[in-house]
Amino acid sequence: MAMCGRRNRSKFILSILGAFVLGYLVFYRNSQSDVAQASRREAPVDLHGNENVELLKKPVYEKPALDVNALGELGRAVKLDLTEEERRKEEESIKKHQINTYVSDRISLHRRLPERWNPLCRDLKYDYRSLPTTSVVIAFYNEAWSTLLRTVHSVLETSPDLLLNEIILVDDYSDRDHLKEPLENYIANLKKVRLIRARKREGLVRARLLGASIATGDVLTFLDCHCECHEGWLEPLLQRIKDEPSAVVCPVIDVIDWNTFQFLGNPGEPQIGGFDWRLVFTWHTIPEHEQKRRSSATDVVRSPTMAGGLFAVNKKYFLYLGTYDTGMEVWGGENLEFSFRIWQCGGSLEIHPCSHVGHVFPKKAPYSRSKALANSVRAAEVWMDEYKEVYYHRSPHARLVRLLL
Ligand code: LR7
Ligand code: MN
């Protein structure tokens, strides 16, 4: 059985990576992690000296006043009545990003989402001052302006200031102009947002690791660069990791429509991750034995695999696991590799039903994903022992790719 023998090798790779990261990056920071630490020490109390939970929950920024009539507000679908010329522009935007950025650009970067968690989640109580802090790491490659910045604002407006050390944006060698100086100037006005840039295309695995290497939080929370966080999304993840440091915890992933930007979450039981024998990620309903193990609808659900983009992990535990396979390029495979790694190294992978985050699923892949097969072969070779033969049987082409690795 392939166990955590890769650990030391990966640790070695990470330390090399960490060493050159310092000289390798241009890095902007406009905030300090001691802000959260300082406010931690001064427990907010009300006039009567009682701990004030509302103060402890206070996000980094409050959302601006609600304008119910604004486009897409509260996660509503946007349908525009367009002239032919406008329609042409909309089509162009879809061709460029595989999401309707013409619509996205017209929705507030601060919009609210409809309530989509199980109502029982509202009753969960947290001891805010004892929860671990987190750094949110967001890698991006050529992302559209409004989807990227809506992600950033959404994190800042839904995460308690006390718990969020920073957001680390990692530019994976994008070549679009809006992601250069305009982005630097924009985030210079935001608290707790840092930007680092890779000097060559690293792919999402190494881009995330660049971000992780400068993170100051106890927990690393990874998000894709086109997400919107539901109220209260962060606390359940951090609470679970506090209770069980070897748990890697995913939010429920709600769908944001690429065309209308409608938020399609639902408060029902989440689905869990699996895979087929071609190592394609699949969704499944929660099996009966797992339902029996849970005592409440707000308990975590154990999941064999994760979709890959959205999860929180204790930083120390992430290092213990040997992080990711740093030989994986661009996109694909790392989610199953990391899932297998967690379970085979004695941890657990879980979905928290009280943490919801929306994700924009594009119309089709916006960039080439030709390395995905090689990444899957790496996952099979390292973690699947004799079961890799079933994979090669179902995916004969992978055998050829194996020869080239
Ligand atoms: O070369 C790259 N460099 C990057 O920085 C390629 C991508 N990226 C960034 C990208 O800008 C984005 O922020 O990495 C993130 C993920 O890329 P996406 O959004 O193109 O991926 P996806 O949402 O189509 O794919 C899912 O599977 C991937 C497998 O490699 C990753 O694990 C993604 O994070 C993952 N996304 C999710 O889990 C969200 C829910 C999708 C589902 C189901
Ligand atoms: Mn994505």
UniProtKB/TrEMBL annotation:
Keywords: Disulfide bond, Glycosyltransferase, Golgi apparatus, Lectin, Manganese, Membrane, Metal-binding, Signal-anchor, Transferase, Transmembrane, Transmembrane helix. GO terms for cellular component: Golgi membrane. It is a single-pass type II membrane protein. GO terms for molecular function: carbohydrate binding; metal ion binding; polypeptide N-acetylgalactosaminyltransferase activity. Its cofactor is Mn(2+). It is found in: Golgi apparatus membrane. It holds the Pfam family Glycos_transf_2. This is Glycosyltransferase 2-like domain-containing protein. It comes from Danionella cerebrum.
